[in-house]
Specification:
mainly alpha, Growth Hormone, Chain: A, about 0% strand, about 80% helix, about 400 residues
Length: about 400
């Protein structure tokens, strides 16, 4: 069997829309801030331009911390109460950021936002696993990731539009409103997917034992690490994008448009993956996508060297669109392959997969971002290295 019979609740389409909206809150919370980074840095007294990137990367630390907690919590209380608790923390963090008077206060609010948004991010993986499995699960996750990735096409534009009529604090107000809307829809339409008889106690011993069991499953850990490496490359791009396009290439208010064009390649890939995965399978697509990313990045780094890291705008755009098309193929498949053998540990499995991959990607993406030196070379080199290591890890995961 490749899929389970879904329990009563919303239709397939409504199910995908609800969880996509909830999942997209993470991307919205990150990408809508990008046009505002210079103003936030100026208002809060940030002297080093690279330090502004922490507004983006610190939310990933919160994601990593929160997923360890909310996944197992959802196994005890059910999926919905855990989501409610996460939303409450997220809204509190957004409110702290609204009234932030210093950079540390801003980072504290962003950390809480990351902890809070980790609830829907991690519990949704378990929720989907409750209802689907195999290639059907990958198909659902592909549609979800399509929306999740398409959000960045609009998020920077939303942030910039809000700043026309308000300032960067208004962006955080929009986060609160969107969170309340998605929470209400989830509460009213989504049934609880974890039956009471399948719930497990929340205990440290159970979490540790389950984690050790998961670490013994080569495919689960291998694809989790691979996802973290690819996520680190993507986070490196998110950290660097505003400085590369808005400052290095002096695009100014055109930055959201360029960002949207590149994001479109990610969304298109995730959308096509829903069909491709049913024909070719997840492992085939993951292997070939990693090979393409590594090959493109190695070639692009060599070519960019001839321009001393300052090639014309069309070059980084073409490279990033081709590269992130392959990344879009990877996202849903890597998570699904990591979760596939964890049906009996869905809640903790989602927590470990999500937390470990995020813990891997945060420092790697931060290193790439902090290495920005006014050229695109650190970004391309970072993507090349991480995709190469990821390909090696995938081969290890699939070896007997």
């Amino acid at each position: 069997m490749n899929s389970k019979t879904p329990k009563a609740g919303p239709s397939f389409v409504e199910f995908v829309i609800i969880i996509s909206l909830m999942m997209s809150l993470t991307a919205l919370s990150i990408d809508a801030m990008l046009p505002a980074l210079p103003q936030i840095g100026s208002d809060l007294g940030v002297k080093n331009a690279n330090d502004r990137q922490l507004i983006v990367s610190v939310i990933f630390l919160g994601l990593a911390i929160g997923q360890v907690f909310f996944g197992p919590l959802s196994d005890k209380t059910g999926r919905k109460p855990a989501v409610y608790a996460g939303y409450a923390i997220y809204i509190a963090g957004a409110c702290i950021s609204i009234f932030a008077s210093s950079f540390p206060m801003m980072l504290g609010g962003r950390l809480l936002q990351g902890v809070g948004v980790s609830a829907p991010r991690s519990v949704i993986l378990a929720l989907v696993r409750d209802r689907y499995e195999g290639r059907a699960m990958a198909q659902v996750m592909s549609f979800v990731m399509t929306v999740f990735i398409l959000v960045p096409m609009l998020a920077p534009t939303l942030g910039q539009a809000i700043m026309v009529f308000s300032n960067w604090r208004g962006i955080f107000v929009s986060f609160v409103l969107i969170a309340l809307f998605s929470l209400a829809w989830f509460a009213l339409r989504m049934p609880e997917t974890l039956a009471p008889e399948h719930r497990a106690p929340f205990s440290l011993r159970r979490i540790i034992n389950a984690t050790f069991e998961i670490f013994k499953i080569r495919t689960a850990i291998g694809y989790t690490v691979s996802a973290g490496l690819v996520g680190g490359a993507f986070l490196g791009y998110l950290n660097s994008a505003q400085q590369i396009f808005q400052e290095q290439y002096a695009l100014g208010e055109r930055f959201p448009l360029i960002f949207a064009i590149i994001a479109f390649s990610l969304g298109l890939a995730s959308f096509l993956n829903a069909r491709l995965v049913m024909r070719y399978g997840m492992r085939f697509l993951v292997n070939w996508s990693l090979r393409i990313i590594f090959g493109l990045s190695a070639a692009a780094f060599g070519i960019a060297m001839f321009w001393a890291g300052q090639p014309p705008l069309w070059f980084p755009m073409a490279y990033l669109m081709l590269t992130f098309f392959s990344v879009g193929i990877l996202f849903g498949n890597q998570n699904s392959l990591a979760m596939e053998p964890l049906g009996h540990l869905a809640g903790i499995g989602a927590a470990v997969v999500g937390s470990l991959s995020t813990l891997i990607q945060m420092p790697l993406g931060t290193i790439i971002g902090q290495s920005y030196n006014g050229t695109i070379l650190p970004l391309i080199l970072g993507i090349a290295i991480l995709s190469g290591i990821s390909l090696f890890v995938v081969r290890w995961a699939e070896s007997k």
